[in-house]
Amino acid sequence: MSENVILKNISERTYEDAIAFHGHSCGGLALGYAAALYARELLDLNYSEDEEVVVITETDSCTVDSVQVILGCTAGKGNLFVNNWGKNAFTFYNRTTGKAVRLMMKPDFFKSNPEMDALRGKVFSGKADEKEAARYRELSNQRVADILSTPGSQIYDVKEPQQPIPEKAKIFDNIICPICGESVGDARCVEVGGQKICQFCVQTQK
């Protein structure tokens, strides 16, 4: 991540910062950006330097990277949880106020674009010629512009959270797995025959 992304506070973070982190602009990144801004508005969120903001996503798509950049939620910090359920939905928690919302993309937000759908198949299979690839980029950029110009309330339904707020991240002691001899977090081990074994060894010993 570039230095300017690290130093900016939440009010200064832009879609361009999300692009810098993610590597390219796309509809998914724009949808994540819209979700993060809408959650910030609904829950009065600030950039999460620690675990003040917690997010559970129900997708592992490009959307998640915008949430990381705008709200400061990361797996390493313990305030980003990814459930790959294939739903464009996010639950945001404000630990300071105790408030939370689940944002679910409206079922009818995306209208099918037959031309874009056909070109996508060609582009991602490497079969598109230069003209077709350029047209796909044009359509994709237009979709991004449409998302960024649409209020979050027109993209996402606001729902009650389905899950309680996750516990704060914990620091675990490390032990040595008696099978592989590698260091592993105590709490991530499985007790077998009175010994604590790493999960990899438990699975491979079956």
From TrEMBL:
It comes from the Archaea. Residues 21-156 form the Formylmethanofuran dehydrogenase subunit E domain. Pfam families: FmdE. InterPro entries: FmdE, FmdEsu_dom, tRNA_methyltr_O. This is Formylmethanofuran dehydrogenase subunit E domain-containing protein. It comes from Methanimicrococcus hongohii.
